[in-house]
């Protein structure tokens, strides 16, 4: 089973009240002792780190190392913002699983198909963000219009938490790029990078990893 398909199946299951998740009773598949044997991510992958600009937002960072601790949790070392030269980036340390699910976010390795009400982040220019001038702002999908010939692609309508609204292409055609203020200024409003990260992503990520026996440290 492909990771993207598994993510979309999990997304559908999460909205079915007849199928309570393992996370509801504090248990996770493959996690009966409360340890986390699978690495949550790997070096080089993206991490979004909470900060504050015109409102709550996230800077774009990159993971440097992921190491398991004696208690079974994981230590994540990251640097941010990714848009700055390496010498100007700040080092950040985190523990996985997080005590606060909003302190940092580990985006899905594959795009999750949008659905009404799901959380989504868009990358915007904001000069008020410390040490950078671009940041990810969160919101909720109000409408998803897939293409008839390609149901995983289409347009997503978003109401951002700061009150702004957007209509964007999904997946964004620029998700693989290296971003800066000047690069974002060259995109149309519909082309801005967007990432779907469900609010219960920490629990669902653990379930998916255990279900697929997929260790991110071994991913290509």
Protein model, in words:
With 220 residues, this protein is α+β, with helices and mostly antiparallel strands. It has 3 helices and 10 strands, in the order H-E-E-E-E-E-E-E-E-E-H-E-H. It has helices at residues 3-14, 181-185, 201-212; strands at 46-52, 56-68, 74-80, 90-96, 104-105, 119-125, 134-146, 154-160, 165-170, 194-196. The protein has a 5-stranded antiparallel β-sheet, with no helix packed on it. Strands 9-8-7-6-10 form a 5-stranded antiparallel β-sheet. A hairpin with a 3-residue loop joins strand 1 and strand 2. Mean pLDDT is 83; it is low at 13-33.
Can you lay out the helices and strands and say which pair or pack?
Blueprint: H1 3-14, E1 46-52, E2 56-68, E3 74-80, E4 90-96, E5 104-105, E6 119-125, E7 134-146, E8 154-160, E9 165-170, H2 181-185, E10 194-196, H3 201-212
Antiparallel strand pairs: 1-2, 1-5, 2-3, 3-4, 6-7, 6-10, 7-8, 8-9
Order of H and E elements: HEEEEEEEEEHEH
Distance between the termini: 16 Å
The Cα radius of gyration reads 17 Å
Mean pLDDT rating: 83
From the spread of the alpha carbons, the general shape counts as globular
Q: Identify low-pLDDT runs.
A: 13-33
Give the % helix: 10-25%
Helical segment count:
3
Strand order of the largest sheet: 4-3-2-1-5
Strand tally: 10
| Helix-strand category | alpha+beta
- Estimate the strand proportion: 25-35%
Largest pleated sheet: 5 strands, antiparallel
